[in-house]
Amino acid sequence: MSTVVAEGVIPVAAPAHDTGAFDPLVELHGVWTPELADRYLPIPGMPPVKYECQDGHLIVSPYEGSANIFAADELRDWLKPHAKSLGGGAYTTLNIRLGPDSWIQPDFAVLREPARGRVWIPATQALLVGECVSPSSRVSDRIDKPAMCAEAGIEYFMRVEVSYAKKHAEVVLLRLGDEGVYEVHAKALAGDTFETREPFPLRFDPAELLED
């Protein structure tokens, strides 16, 4: 059988009442927590995937393609010295805990203090999280995750879109407003200059996120 999880379809074992075996993807549907994730994830026999969770519902998605990985790595490198100057750190994929039954694995993030080996990072320690939009997670990256991060009080959210076929790159920095929703703080397309002073000085052409 197959279970539909968010934007992807993943094969899972038959329910426990059919086989007698405990299947966490079936038995824990809607009640996932970080504690259960520590116990049951990754699922044995599953291909490598990202595990995220919204209101107890597990979201499984494939890892990013090379275009997004390159962009995320470049941004992490640019953000790292600024993060260190604030006493924190810049990272690629981390588990950011947004609530008792919700977490995300952003493509890059800036923390207010170093992670120092922690598996679960509370949202209060995240200054900025970033997502590189991919076809399999477009709705989640553009709508769902920003809404979840805003609700959790994360001050900045950066959205990145790159396409080698279209020679396109776009960077949008959102900042949490007084109403508790994100507002556009800075943005630019390839060929233009992305520039911001907050949360730290950044100035670059989004085209630099496309590998030569």
UniProtKB/TrEMBL annotation:
It holds the Pfam family Uma2. Coiled coil: none annotated. Residues 40-201 form the Putative restriction endonuclease domain. This is Putative restriction endonuclease domain-containing protein.
